[in-house]
Each structure stands twice: as structure tokens, then as C-alpha cells.
Design goal:
mainly beta, elongated
């Protein structure tokens, strides 16, 4: 017999969010850009895993910081990813593991470039969840 699955193996895909952020993308310098990925619309607490794939461009080498937020606050585990000296065209993937999301909880991702020309062109997020 096989053991019960745990973690992401026990989760089911809940949603796929895909955002094309316009012909010129959105500027991610300064305060950065925040995009809402998931809202827990059930009355139960959920365990949520997210994989976000982003395409980021800049006219020069720059550094990128991304953070997953739960109700506007950085998620404690695995929420921050930093890439120093990213190239002018970068595929950037950030995986969030095991966030506990209460009823009506909102997960978003915030992306920041340290250069004024940093642009987030598009993103695709795969959201997995299971009820607790």
C-alpha cells in the first residue's frame, strides 16, 4: 500500500492565473508592483502552494526582488526571492510553499527592480490548495 500523500502531492490545482500586462508591461522600480493571485473564498482555512513564472525586462543588468504577501504581509516561509545582476531579459520563477490562508485571505506577489527601467511584462501563476 502507498502512504498517504502530503504537501503539494496532496493538493489539487485550484487555479491558473495568467496576466499579460499590456504592450509595454508595468514598471517595477521604486515601490514595485503588486499583483493579486488568489483569494480564499471558502469558510475554511487552506494550505496553498503557488508557482509564479514571470518575464521581466530592463535595458541594463539589474537586481530583482519578489515577495509573496498574505493579506499585505510577507508570508513567513519562502516568500522572498532575490536575483542579483539579472540580465536584460529574464525568466524569473518564484515558488511559494505551504502558506496557511485563512478564510477571505488574499495572496499577492510583489516584484521590485532596483533599476528605473525594470518592467514586468507578464506572469503566470499555478495555485495548488487543500483544505485543512
Amino acid at each position: 500500500t502507498c502512504p498517504d500523500t502530503t504537501g503539494i502531492e496532496a493538493a489539487r490545482i485550484e487555479n491558473i492565473v495568467s496576466a499579460d500586462l499590456g504592450g509595454g508591461g508595468v514598471n517595477i522600480s521604486g515601490a514595485g508592483y503588486t499583483y493579486t493571485l488568489y483569494t480564499n473564498t471558502s469558510s475554511n482555512t487552506q494550505r496553498v502552494y503557488v508557482q509564479t513564472n514571470m518575464y521581466i525586462t530592463c535595458i541594463v543588468t539589474h537586481s530583482i526582488n519578489s515577495t509573496y504577501l498574505l493579506n499585505g504581509v510577507p508570508v513567513p516561509t519562502g516568500s522572498i526571492m532575490y536575483e542579483e545582476l539579472a540580465t536584460t531579459k529574464t525568466d524569473f520563477t518564484h515558488f511559494l510553499i505551504a502558506a496557511t490562508v485563512p478564510a477571505a485571505g488574499v495572496i499577492a506577489i510583489k516584484v521590485i527592480s532596483d533599476n528605473a527601467n525594470g518592467v514586468l511584462n507578464n506572469l503566470t501563476s499555478f495555485i495548488y490548495k487543500h483544505d485543512i
